[in-house]
Write a structure and sequence with these properties.
Elements: E1 2-4, H1 10-17, H2 25-34, E2 41-47, E3 53-60, E4 63-67, H3 75-84, E5 89-93, H4 94-97, E6 108-117, E7 129-130, H5 136-144, H6 155-167, E8 173-177, E9 184-193, E10 197-205, H7 214-228, E11 232-237, H8 240-249, E12 251-261
Parallel strand pairs: 4-5, 10-11
Antiparallel strand pairs: 1-2, 2-3, 3-4, 5-12, 6-11, 6-12, 7-8, 8-9, 9-10
Helix pairs in contact: 5-6, 7-8
Length: about 260
Amino acid sequence: MITKCNLQNINQIYDYIADDYQNCLYTYIDLVEYGLENENFNVWIQYNESDEICCVISEYYGGFQIYSRDYDLIADELSEFLHEMDCEGVSGCKDSIDQIRDDFPGYRQTTGIIGKLEELTYPPNPDAYSASIDEMEEIAKIVSLNENLSKHHTYESLLKQFRERKEDNFGRNFLLRDAENGKIICHAATYAEIDNLGVIGGVLTTDDYRGKGYSKGTLSAICSQLQSEGKDVFSKFIIPPAVRMHYGVGFKKVGDWITLKK
């Protein structure tokens, strides 16, 4: 049975996730940040025949996340529910998505790594800084033009989300600029953060500056600030250069994730 989460059962989700939030980062952070009061964030609970939680489903701006602590979700029911919701994309740990993947023919699959920063091993670039809200249009433009980062978002949706995160202290964007011409060299952000953790996203170096180590220094700078605030730092990364970059800064693999996108 799948039922919409409400104030009477929201604590069941917290108890279910407990300290395993690394496997449901966005669901956990969105739940802590928004509760059930944001119209763009929705949560459902799947119960098994013993009336025990076996899966948590969340949706934020049309993107679905699934989390099953013991990977004992009821696949047929879950797939039917997602199709009924006209799901454009769903993400989750590999062991969970593997159980429903065949029910989504034609969906494009992206596989990546969940990493946690254990110890910062690369020096922060001292010139990287936290961007102001006035710089979000420029940031949204360069991120939307990046093939690896813009698969699921338009310029307009990125700009809206960047501004909202900045205004709500739910995210930050770090920039490194060319001192001579002011152009953006590198960008790194948190796509979600709360008091005790942050999730890195949107790390890129613009075309003219690639291959010179700028991304490591900028990523290290935002991670250093997050760690100084006592936050655990996580990231999800895909392509080999991103894997090497994160490992070079001090991230260690803690899991695998998959996104299925129509």
